[in-house]
Amino acid sequence: MKLNEWMVKPTPQTEWIQGRGILLWLAFFFIELGAGIFFVATFFGNLWAMLIGWLVCGVIGGGVHILYLGHPFRFWRMVRKPGSSWISRGLIFVSLFLILGLIQMAVVSGGGSSLVLTILVDILAFLTIVYGGFAMNCVNGIPLWNTALLPILYAVSGIWGGASVALGIALGTGAASTIGVSLEEWIRLLLIAYIGLIIVYFISVRYTNLTGKVSVQGIVSGEYWPLMWFGVVLIGLVIPIAVVVISLGTGIENMSAAVLYIAILCELVGDITMRYLILKDGLYSPLIASSAYAP
Q: C-alpha 20: how far from its chain's center?
């Protein structure tokens, strides 16, 4: 962008998606995916899924997030402003989730159970899933982010991804015969909800203001359309939908494990691509009106 166009036309945000910002994109994805896996696993008592979800959230997602911060030994200072910062709240949610998640796994591995602990862990897991959406939603100057639908979209995508990976873990550990059908029902409902939310989200942002219109056009028919139509729609939605339709006729227990793993991978590719587009095409609304910036 030319210097004379700065904040006169819609201006892309770069801090959260370019350079080191790529790490934040990955951190949000893995933290929320791991929490989603753990969240779903608690409903079925699958210890392997809990462990993998905990590792994805804490080790991969948390590790990448610390790398993004640049000063790993100072990140704890972020917790000092939970009243005004969603990043601060998010760090608290993730930390408490990881601590109580460890305790939950210890209890389950010992053959015990605690309803109160399970509820607390699930609440923290859910807050971990949605905090990234709320952190972005607070940026008033970017219409693509500043909508109440964004945290809802992230909640559904995080739990959908978690349910899909939990199904893959159940297949790999031989537990699919006992929990596979229930997880399949979760996945079907979440898939429908995710598709509906994407459509409503884009329509809502498109008609919010002119900058929202530019953002949506950039994703759907502009510079980023290949990522949207090939990465999100074809790979991330069409292939999983096809597998879901096939499973309705054959039953998930009769489907090839390879086909199911491919569908799970495609779902994750579509999710991480959608998150990239939302970050990449987040445009600040102009501070100064310009005749060159017209509908």
A: 19
Model confidence over 191-214: pLDDT tens digits?
999 999 999 999 999 998 899 999
Q: What are phi and psi of 284, to 5 degrees?
A: -75, 140
In this structure, are residues 141 and 282 in contact, taking their beta carbons and an 8 Å threshold?
no
Q: Does the reported pTM lie above 0.85?
A: yes
- Location of structure tokens 């392997």: 48
Three-class secondary structure of residue 226 per DSSP: helix
**pLDDT for 178:** 65
CA distances from 189 to 84, 161, 185, 245 (A): 35, 12, 6, 13
What is the separation, in whole angstroms, between the first and last Cα of the chain? 19
What sign for the dihedral angle of Cα 42, 61, 25, 92? Answer: positive
How many other C-beta atoms can be found within 10 angstroms of the C-beta atom of residue 117? 17
User: DSSP letters of 4-45?
Assistant: GGTTTS-EE--TTTSTTHHHHHHHHHHHHHHHHHHHHHHHHT
| Ordered DSSP codes for 118-148 | HHHHHHHHHHHHHHHHHHHHT-TT-TTTSST
Q: Are the C-beta atoms of residues 160 and 267 closer than 8 Å to each other?
A: yes
Q: How far is CA 163 from CA 5, 189, 211, 264, 280, in A?
A: 45, 11, 35, 9, 27
Residues of the chain with pLDDT under 70: 1-7, 70-85, 176-178, 180-181, 253, 288-295
Phi, psi of 283 (to 5 degrees): -110, 135
pLDDT tens-digit series, residues 53-88: 999 999 999 999 888 876 666 666 666 666 666 778
CATH superfamily assigned to domain 11-284: Formate dehydrogenase/DMSO reductase domain (1.20.1630.10)
